[in-house]
Design goal:
By secondary structure, the chain is an alpha+beta fold. 25% of the residues lie in helices and 30% in strands. It contains 15 helices and 41 strands.
Length: 721
């Protein structure tokens, strides 16, 4: 994909720099530069790093962050700052992750910055910049939070070493301005202590396991606080904690709802004391689930007698609860919690009706979408924070109705497109480097591009994406054999379709070729991608392939079952799922004489049900006959999503099983589950694009939802329904 960029993002006066002779992963580096001026005033600071950074100018933190990018698409953040007359001290701390995960790719470390005034270069990074290992952080022995996220942190308080001149490094990059808005960091959220006492640590070496398996001994609040009245934080005077029992003091803290933000700790101990912080979304284990399946949802910090509030700005935590282990008998706690970080969106769009349950589903759905929007769309803020094309497609559709947000969606699509591999498919996550990919997710990218075009009217971007889409479709055409879509049999491809047995494409990784399999979901998703490409470009170009793929679907039909099978393996049809029937209806591939009976099968038991992520196919297939099935769809929405609310959810889950899914690692906040926001806008309010970028209120049907009204933000302005 050809990248358009600004060649003058940096001048010749600055260069890429890093620590002398240091390229290790998980390195924290600190850089200091003196900028001297003869007058005070506003200037422009431009910054780009590999990793994440935090800036202080004359001791004041400057809100800004690194956008996820690639070497050939390197984002530069520009912020306005004020210089004082004389010497100004610019300090930039950088965390270099330096490994391939679902949120990063290992590249050469480096930092580049410039300060300019009205286009005139004042100063910038170079060999006169001082550098050192950042004090406090350990590099070795730090556990991964998850394989997808990479390392947590251990702030041990160690020295950073002497300052020395930074080293210039050679980096081949293409610079672009940050394409989306800067994230907003808020004041510390209110926190309530909901359990406290002492703990007895086990023998586990990893902090997550140690917190998970430790013995917890509850004590009354006033028993270990010596008279403190209110278990709420922040506390101006501090809450004094004292106990001589066991290995130390523990606290469980409630942030009120699932949040994402920077961890802030403000506490003192009489001497240097280890503190461990676990984070999670629930208390199903009667504690924070800080370890599950090799994951370590815990970080380490060292406190001392001097009050020095600590903020970790290099990665957000996504959680509702914190669990604190203080390995000592005494501490004064002023705060432990998060500084919430969010992407700025317009919250003026709204939906309301006479049914309070549907109103609450809408509000929590919108909150869930916001929970999963930062540098890019995220599947979940707790476990992965990764951009997947399939997840993002649901998030975009719902987001058009929730926020009227188009720039953000476009740039997520561009970020996905830039990950296109040599085999023409997209990386599993962007901007990352992962050893497997899911072919169907590349097809979902095509659906999302067409939907972006339909809702925004942005024809220029559609043309920009044409080469990327063309390569994906050409690669998929090679999977067709005898009219059937054959699963990818080589290692490195995950034939995932839904989180159900057989449809989940297990085993995820394999050494050799898998047995041949004709897959109906792959066939129908390819058909949908062809239809969407035809809608954007030349319909005649795709007409023959659409007809061939549609005709091939007949091989999956089983008259006795009255349904399409999901697979044909060794000549045998197997697995009958709602997802396949829904896609057959949704794409129009199902012959007219079968539509009536096939629609009924989606409302009956017997088929493998769709999970939350793919339920959109079922609901849209049924809503093709709104008078017949509309009420059933929204009754099911009330039942499925309402159940999460009745279980105390403040966001919507990854699957219906909640925290128990995936061997107890299920996410309780997942962006793809914001689907009801889309359904309320597109069907209850009846607003959909009549032409690209032109939203229209179509006929509204009675779904058992009364007095529905809403405000939508369209490309042409506000639309009240």
């Amino acid at each position: 994909m050809e990248v358009q960029y600004e060649s003058n993002m940096f001048s010749a006066g600055s260069s890429w720099i890093w620590l002398q002779g240091e390229h290790a992963a998980n390195t924290y580096a600190q850089f200091k530069h003196i900028c001297r001026t003869n007058a005070s005033g506003a200037v422009r600071l431009s910054v780009s790093v590999d990793g994440q950074y935090s800036i202080h100018l004359n001791g004041v933190w400057i809100p800004s962050s690194q956008y996820g990018d690639y070497p050939f698409y390197k984002s530069v953040q520009t912020v306005e700052v004020n210089l004082e007359q004389g010497e100004n001290v610019l300090e930039i701390a950088v965390w270099y992750q330096g490994e391939d995960t679902s949120v990063s790719r290992a590249e050469m470390p480096g930092l580049r910055f410039e300060i300019s005034c009205e286009g005139e270069f004042l100063c910038g990074s170079g060999t006169d910049t001082l550098a050192r290992r950042m004090p406090g952080f350990e590099t070795e022995g730090v556990e991964n939070i998850t394989g997808q996220l990479g390392k947590g942190f251990w702030f041990s308080g160690r020295d950073g070493g002497p300052w020395e001149k930074a080293a210039e490094v050679q980096k081949e990059v293409v610079c672009v301005p940050r394409p989306i808005s800067e994230l907003k960091t808020e004041d510390p959220c209110g926190v309530r202590i909901i359990s406290q006492g002492v703990f007895e640590a086990g023998e586990d070496e990893k902090p997550g396991l140690r917190m998970q398996h430790a013995g917890l001994f509850f004590r009354e609040f006033d028993g270990i606080t010596k008279g403190a009245a209110f278990p709420c934080l922040p506390s101006l005077q501090g809450i004094r904690l004292i106990s001589e029992e066991k290995d130390g003091l523990y606290l469980v803290l409630d942030l009120g709802r699932i949040r994402e933000g920077c961890l802030k700790l403000d506490l003192t101990c009489p001497q240097k004391t280890k503190v461990e912080v676990g984070f999670g979304e629930h208390l199903e284990d009667l504690r924070v689930r800080s370890a599950v399946g090799g994951r370590c949802f815990a970080v380490r910090y060292t406190s001392g007698p001097v009050r020095e509030p600590f903020i970790y700005r290099f990665r957000r935590l996504g959680c509702r609860y914190l669990q604190i282990f203080i390995y000592g008998s005494e501490a004064v706690l002023y705060y432990a919690g998060l500084l919430p970080v969010s992407y700025p969106v317009d919250l003026s769009p709204d939906f309301r009706c006479a049914d309070h349950l549907h109103n609450q589903i809408y509000r929590v759905g919108r909150d869930t979408l916001r929970n999963c929007m930062h540098e890019h769309y995220e599947d979940c803020p707790w476990r992965e924070q990764a951009l997947y094309a399939f997840d993002a497609r649901n998030q975009m559709l719902a987001g058009y109705y929730a926020f009227g947000e188009f720039t953000y969606a476009r740039e997520n699509l561009r970020l996905l497109a830039l990950s296109q591999r040599e085999d023409s498919l997209l990386e599993l996550c962007s901007p990352a480097r992962v050893d497997i990919t899911i072919p169907v997710f590349s097809l979902a990218f095509i659906w999302a591009v067409e939907e972006y075009y339909r809702y925004s009217g942005d024809a220029a971007f559609t043309e920009e994406m044409a080469p990327v889409i063309g390569r994906i479709l050409h690669r998929m055409s090679r999977q067709m054999s005898g009219g059937l879509a054959m699963a990818f049999s080589e290692p490195g491809y995950w034939n995932f379709y839904d989180w159900q047995p057989m449809l989940d494409g297990q085993p995820l990784r394999r050494d050799g070729l898998s047995a041949p399999s004709a897959d109906a979901v792959l066939q129908l998703c390819y058909l949908l991608a062809l239809q969407r490409a035809a809608a954007m470009y030349d319909p005649k170009r795709y007409q023959q392939e659409i007809a061939s793929v549609t005709a091939g679907l007949e091989s999956y039909w089983n008259e006795q079952q009255g349904a399409y099978s999901a697979f044909i393996r060794e000549g045998e049809q197997m697995c009958y799922s709602q997802m396949v029937q829904a896609l057959a209806l949704y794409t129009g591939a199902c012959p007219e004489e079968r539509r009536d009976s096939l629609s009924r099968t989606l409302t009956e038991e017997g088929l493998v049900p769709v999970t939350l992520s793919s339920s959109i196919f079922k609901y849209e297939a049924l809503l093709m006959e709104p008078e017949r099935f509309g009420r059933l769809v929204f009754d099911e929405v009330a039942d499925r999503w309402g159940r999460m609310l009745f279980c105390g959810g403040t966001a919507f889950w990854e699957t219906d099983e909640g925290a128990g899914a995936f061997d107890r690692a299920g996410s309780l906040c997942h962006g793809w589950s914001g689907i009801p926001v889309y359904l309320y806008g597109a069907y209850v309010l009846g607003v959909r694009p009549a032409a690209p970028g032109e939203w229209k209120c179509f006929k509204r049907d009675n779904f058992g939802i009364y007095e529905a009204a809403g405000i939508l933000k369209t490309p042409s302005g506000c639309l009240r329904v």
